[in-house]
Amino acid sequence: MIHYRTIWDTGKNFGGMINREMEAIPHPDDWVVWRDGDTMFLHEQWGLQIESIIDVNLSYAIIGGMLTRCNVKDQLHGGAMSDNFDVKVHHIIAHELWNLHTTTVKPTSRPIAAACMMFQKKTWQANKFEENTMHFDAIFTHKVMANGGRVGVAQGLYLAHLYRPWVAEHPERHYGHLEQPKRQNKKHEYPST
Question: Taking the model in full, what pTM does it have?
Fold first, then answer.
C-alpha cells in the first residue's frame, strides 16, 4: 500500500513529526510519499506514476522526485532552480519528463529533499529521523546510505515546489521556515508577495 503525507509541524520539529506519523503506518512493506505543503503534482496521472515507479524500483530505499525548485541539484530539471512560476509551462515539462523517462530512477549519492521523498516503513524503522534539526531529510538520507540503502531520483515524476520565491538571492541558503520558532506572544508576520 502507498500512503501520502504532507510535512508540517508548528514547532518545526519535522523529524519528530515524521517519526510520529510513521508509527501509524500499518505494515513494514508499505510505502509513504512525503511532500511539502507548497508542492503540487503536475501530471494528472501522478498517482499511477508513483505506483508504477515504486513497482519497478523496489531495490531503492529512498526515491525522490524531480522538482521545479529545491536545494538538491540532482532533483532539479536541467540542474537549476526555475524562476518561472507559470504552472502551465511546468505542466508541459511534467508530461515531457514522463514520456522520456517514465519509471526510470537515477541513483544519487546526494540527500533527497523532503519536498518529495518516498520510502518504505521498514526503511524508516532501521533509520529513524533525527529530531529537532532543520536537516532532518539530509541526515535521514545519509543514514540510509550508510546502512547500504540505495537512493535515487525518479526522472519522470516532476512536481512544482514554491520554495522561497520571496528570497531573491540564494534561496537555497534561506532556512528561516525550518528554524525552531522563538516563543513570543506576538502576531505572525508573513513575507509579502
Answer: 0.86
